[in-house]
Amino acid sequence: MNKFNELLAATEEQTYALFRIVTGFLFIFHGSQKLLDFPKEFTYDLSPLMLAAGGIELLGGLLVMIGLFTRPVAFICSGTMAVAYWMAHGMRDLFPMLNGGELAAIYCFAFLFIAAKGPGIWSVGK
Q1: Is-contact 35 59, C-beta < 8 A?
Q2: pLDDT of residue 94
Q3: What is the pTM of this model?
Q4: Alpha-carbon distances, residue 92 vs 14, 22, 101 (angstroms)
Q5: Neighbour tally for 6: CB within 10 Å
Q6: Range 107-113 contact pairs with CB under 8 angstroms and sequence separation of 24 or more
Q7: Cβ distance 16 to 117 under 8 Å?
Q8: What would the pLDDT profile of 80-118 be if each residue is shown by its tens digit?
C-alpha cells in the first residue's frame, strides 16, 4: 500500500485542481439553465431568488473553474447550495435520497472544501 499512497500523494495537487475545475464547470450549467435555458429549458418560475441563484451559479462556477477569487466565491456558492437544500429539499424529508437534495448537499460541501483549500495550481489567481 505504501507505493499506492506515494502515487496518490504525488498527484494530490493536480487531482485537487481537476476537482475544482470540474466542480465549477458543472455548476455553470445550473446557472445557464436558469438564465439562458441552456442546455435544457428551465421549467420553473424565475423569482428574484431564483435569478440570484442562477447568477451565482453561472458566474461563481466560472470563477471557481478558472481559480479567480476562489475562496470567497466558493464560500458564496456553498452558502447558496445550503439555502437551496433547506428551502427546496430539506423540509420534504430528512434523507437527501428521499427529498431530491443530494446534488445540492454535495455541491454545498464541495464548495466549502474549495473555499477552505483555495485555488491551488492551474488557476488564474492565487
Answers
A1: no
A2: 86
A3: 0.94
A4: 38, 29, 10
A5: 9
A6: 107/23, 107/27, 107/77, 107/78, 107/81, 108/78, 108/81, 108/82, 109/78, 110/19, 110/23, 110/78, 111/23, 111/64, 111/74, 111/75, 111/77, 111/78, 111/81, 112/74, 112/75, 112/78
A7: yes
A8: 999 999 999 999 998 999 999 999 999 999 999 999 999
Element (H, E) at 33: helix 12-36
Q: Cα separation of 48 and 125, whole Å?
A: 31
Three-state DSSP at 40 gives coil
Q: Cell numbers at residue 23, please? A: 466542480
Name the grid cell of 40: 435544457
Helix (H) and strand (E) counts in the chain: 6, 0
Q: Are the beta carbons of 120 and 13 closer than 8 angstroms?
A: yes
